[in-house]
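Methods — Computational structure assignment.
A single polypeptide chain was analysed. Its primary sequence is given first, followed by the predicted tertiary structure written as structure tokens.
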Amino acid sequence: MLIAMLCCQVQAQEKKNWVSRQWNRLVSFIDEMSVSGIDTNYIAIPEKPWQIILRYNANDMLLRSSTKMSEETLISQGINGEYEWETTVSPNTSSSIGLWVGYRGYGLGYSLSLSKGQGRNFLFAATGSRFSISLRLRRFKTNDMGIRLSGFDEDGKFDWKSEGHADDPLSVHTTLVDGYYMLNGKRFSHAAAYDQSAIQLRSAGSIVVGASWFYTSLNSASDNNAILIQTMNGIGRTQIYEGSIGLGYTYNWVPTKNLLVNVIAIPQFTLYNRAKAYLYESNYDIFLKPGEISPDGKKALPVDGTWPDDFAITPKGTAEKHGSISLNFDARMSVTYQLGRYFINAYGQVNHYNHYFGDNHMKITDWSVNGSIGIRL
């Protein structure tokens, strides 16, 4: 028994030593990578390798969907002219606060929402001397929306706007993965501007390669949203996938000691552009005259404006389209001030996407703003 216990202790100690050796190798590799190939006249690596950062994040998006009513639909209902519906979805700004812990730019963070009703957010980021990669997920529901009807009819041009309210909430899911690779890692430090694991001593710039993967899903499919779905040519749910790559420029400006301003601008071409629409139809038609019934059995809305109890939508199938190459835009700006081992940072990012699906044009603008204070240990 004693011999067995001694053997177990020896094995546990060997296992512990193996883990410790692997950890030391990893730390040594990261330390070497942080100084490899840099010009110390432009970039300094702090002696204290750990960063603890308290971060505040504000995130928002604007989703605008424009749909031209088909000429066939308008003629079938005896309507002469051009009609275009525009639906705007813009939820309340999502705010969160969290803690990020990293070793020379490699780390993890966790954030908590500051109030209810803003959905869920998750952010992961890693920054090296020449690269950066981040993942941002957002899930939310909203009833607030804007509606605009414009076009031409027998009386001329018209433009009608209203702050709408969906009877059932619209569900929105977004996923954004973006990465950067800086060609001038010798004199330019992306880490100095975005996680403060390095310090930019002199102004320098770099050509940057940027790539991103964007996914969004807008789901309004419910019986109570039947009218909204009909104005969007029967589209009750949309999924969009976009893979983009581009070439741009980034610059670190050091106007005075301890102050750093960074700007990134990257036009990106969307090479993979796919949209999938889930189509629905209802048992009522908003274009029918009072009391009229269509050949396929659809009824007109009540003239008194009441909501029918038997209003229902049924799936009609799906439609999928691979779009052509399109141009999007990615931009960032960061300001950092050093106070010895302490630092203060603020940065913002804007992404803009366009997608066409038949007569439907979807425009998405996604932005976030971060403010942080940190310490090196």
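Note: The first helix runs from residue 2 to 35.
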